[in-house]
Amino acid sequence: MTPGVPRRGRRRPLPLALFVCAVLPLGCDSRPHEGAAHNSPSARATSPIELCVSLIGHWAREELAGRAAGDFMQKGLSGAQNEILTAVVAAAREERGRTGAEGAERVVAEETERRCAERHEGGGPTGHPWQ
Length: 131
Fold this sequence. Notes:
The chain is mainly α. Helices cover about 55% and strands about 0% of the residues.
């Protein structure tokens, strides 16, 4: 015992433990609360084609606007996706020279969709996923 420090009484953990055991189950009701949605839809997975179209479309628009920087790996693209991007951007630049920005946007949308669908024809890309 340390001199000058008052002695504390013996702690009694049992009442606290009984209280926790009595109250804890009240907050653990697994039933939905009133007003909760019972049949909320689950999130839908993005298909490989949708993901390809989204990535290629984004980077094609960035390239056409002069805002793209970095190589294909920094953009999160595979080698095959980069080939699609290069072809789409070339076709869009050519169309932009003939018909303007609207034509270029149309080419980006159409060519990206077509080329991504071809790449994933039969359920997925062939070979290694990063090809």
